[in-house]
Design a protein that fits this description.
Blueprint lengths: L1 E2 L2 H10 L11 E8 L8 H21 L3 E6 L4 H11 L5 E10 L24
Antiparallel strand pairs: 1-2, 2-4, 3-4
Helix pairs in contact: 1-3
């Protein structure tokens, strides 16, 4: 769901503990999925599809020179309930995360969290 209304973005910002950037972002996007349409009606597939869509959205925003921030919703029951209420979602539509999109307020140095200790070959410990 694309959220442009300042009133709705404000409500989402209040519902998400780290969502204050939604107050200044011109667009918020809530990525969710319809459990009835998910592969085998499995929540895990719905979440995997949502996460892939969110990552693609973040990469596309960066490629366009925009800033974006992933704001987790699922599995926090309070966040899921609040966002569902704000957006009028039926019970079978699960909000996965919100993304604030806008012009970046700052430019940070690129960083990595890569650690070779987390890469395993063939088998764990290998």
């Amino acid at each position: 769901m694309v959220v442009r209304s300042p009133t709705t973005r404000d409500a989402l910002a209040d519902a998400l503990p780290h969502g204050q950037m939604l107050l200044a972002a011109p667009v918020g996007i809530v990525v969710g999925g319809d459990l009835d349409a998910a592969h085998d009606r499995q929540l895990s597939y719905l979440l995997q599809d949502g996460a892939a869509a969110i990552e693609n959205l973040l990469l596309a925003a960066t490629a366009l020179g925009l800033g974006s921030c992933w704001l987790g919703i699922h599995p926090r029951e309070g966040r899921v309930a609040a966002v569902s209420r704000i957006l009028g979602l039926p019970a079978h539509v699960i909000p996965v995360a919100a993304v604030a999109v806008g012009w970046p307020g700052e430019v940070k140095e690129p960083r990595t969290r890569f650690s070779a200790a987390y890469v395993h070959h063939e088998r764990r410990g290998g």
